[in-house]
Sequence to fold (863 residues):
Amino acid sequence: MTASVPIIEMKGISISFPGVKALDNVDFTLYPGEVHTLMGENGAGKSTLIKALTGVYAIDEGEIRVLGETRRLSGTADAQDAGISTVYQEVNLCSNLSIGENVMLGHETRGPFGINWKATHAAASEALQKLGLGHLDPRLPLSTLSLAVQQLVAISRSMVTKSKVLILDEPTSSLDAVEVEQLFRVMRNLRDQGVAILFVSHFLDQVYAISDRLTVLRNGQFVGEYMTAELDRSALISKMIGKDIASLRSLDSERARKDHPHDEAPVYAATGLSRRGSVEETDLQLHAGEVVGFAGLLGSGRTELARLIYGADKPDTGSVAMRGETVDVKNPAIALSKRIAFSSENRRDEGIIRDLSVRENLILGVQAKRGWARPLPRKEVEAIVSKYLVELGVRPADPDRPIRNLSGGNQQKVLLGRWLATKPEVLILDEPTRGIDVGAKADIQEQVAALADEGVAVVFISSELDEVVRLSDRIVVMKDHRKIAEIVNGPDVTAESIVTTIAEEGVTADSTPQGAHS
Amino acid sequence: MSTTTATPELKTEKSGNDVFRWLKLHIELLPTIAAVVIFVAMIAYGQIAYGGILQANTVSNLLINNAHLIILAVGLTFVILTGGIDLSVGAVIAFTSVLGVILMNQGWNPWLALGLMIVIGAAFGAVSGILIQYFNVQPFIATLAMMFLARGLASMLSTVPERLADDSPFLVLAENFKIIDGPKVNDLIITPGVIIAIIVVVAGFFVLHRTRLGRTVYAIGGSEQSAKLMGLPVAKTKLAIYIISGTLAGVASAIYTARLGSAQNITGIGWELDAIAATVIGGTLLTGGAGFVLGSVVGALVLGLMNVLITRDGGIPPEATTIITGGILLVFVLLQRGVLAKKRE
Fold:
């Protein structure tokens, strides 16, 4: 492999967006006939790198070479001309058109009377044939196909342009196991024909099953390039989250395990909760006075599970009982009335209302629970506002200030106050400490512990494993949209042991994909 | 007894299933088929209730009186297929028509004036397209602005009817050519305007179904994001469709002006909405991505025939025309909703 000439070389790529450096001096090299996986958590810069390569984003610094020649691609069409095809996570085809047309759009066979549909459909059939889809009638509407087959149809577009590079940006996220295997067969087939494949996936098992090499990114920075066979899963995860294994080991559980009288009915109990494409069937119990941490990589399904609990997404299956009584939490309004509150990880878009004051943001939860037809009396508003501003230590403690002028940490405190004011029995905090300063972080962690002591069932979600370990009584470990383990916290539980759990899950039980590859 | 009757019943059920399956695969054709059915039903009803619908002169008049609407509907089909809208065409007709007549009366060569009318139409479309594509203005707002601009310019030129000289060669566009000389006045008549309308329809059909530009129009309507990511020339195409719509407004203006022999600044008020109604009745989804030029022609003819029937009936006040148009439109939009909901399943 090293003997061959790289088809794509990206050197020292930097891209800045207002206020954030999305890519910082990143290198990436792709050889013909290999599957090269780009690894990193959400926001690590994977998609940005792909968009830089295809010219959707302009690069600030660095150099892109295609077959040894320096190129600046100016967009998808230009990239296609250079032999680079991209298939995205969401199927980007036109469902109003036929299968054949979707394959051939922009490359239709033309004759003296315009497009020759017969020849075009024949060419489409030929392209589909190469992916083992010869049985499809190209004249049928695309909408008759399953999502997985549509994804393969999208790939067959690259057959038409005879692409040498195929970029697959999380193509498997909405496919089931059989469909993934079908996709992988196609990928191996293409690789053997000399196509260079750039693959992005959150699923570790898939990455190990299909890829020859890995490039790891973290926070927009290049971590390293490795042969898949030479990097074990724990090492890969620690490179992705940026803590070496030794330092993970040194962190110990700080929260003394408390004895919970689990014989009483849980505040919240879900059985078989699932939603296609986001969470597989999961059982979950939350007890009063308990902090349950959700651990897992970004994209492992922890936020998705939280959204199902709150009814922000409607579950496909499963039943929920609160204090033994069956409830149907199908939307957030019902969740609120059942005293479940959810603070989103997306503070800016799903949390604060930027242009409203601190006071208005604080009372939003209580007001929503009361219903908009019954405004909160002024006195009650002031009582809530003064209580939480002091209790949570919001600075500046000025209720009239627009919330956008507060720091991230203080905005987060206001959000916490918003949900506390609804007097929740179940409080879900998704990444409450992300991107805030150390002081505010400590304040919020303290509040979480205090809330549990008051009898609230708290779900605490964080990317920082040590934080989860420190705060939680019980840890639900998520991976690939599944709950893979539930760990009762104790002295032997560390961030490292959770990483090991994530890395080793599935390897021993299901070793076929790996074996098939090597 | 039961065995003998069961067999034919089974058979009909099966063939019914085949039709149902075909319809399910071509469900986007349903509104267009419905428009054709309604059109045929209106002809049948008119023929039975009032008589004289299925005869040469009625058909000729229907085509002659609606040639401009058919042309506008073809232009709007392009626009609506991408999910856009063009509200400026009626006002563009007023402006180009008034300007054309004034120039011709001042001694301009009528064919030069005709060319200018079409170029101005195209220019209005180009401005709309640039606003929409490069300045990210909503199509509704961009073309609304163009509508006010064109209407205002028409009123600046003149606020009274401008008559075209009776001997102007321009009027040849509306000259009657007898194809079949029937008894009394029952002749099949055609005008150059009708022929132009037919050419526009055929050309529109060809472009939409047999060129990459046309297929890109459908792709944009299906999903603009996908079309971009597939590397299709989205920006160029969107610009092109507004230019096409504007150009056809100029053509429609020439044909209407020649037929009337005069122009006025208040001509064409609401015609954009008639053309949109014709397009929608003909089966083009307002959200874009599905529809046919021929459907829009049927839609325009449905509207035209409705006026004929109302005149024939005599009992229906002409003021009720818009109510009936609105009713038909509502039914068709609801039908489209149903089709879309079915498709999502």
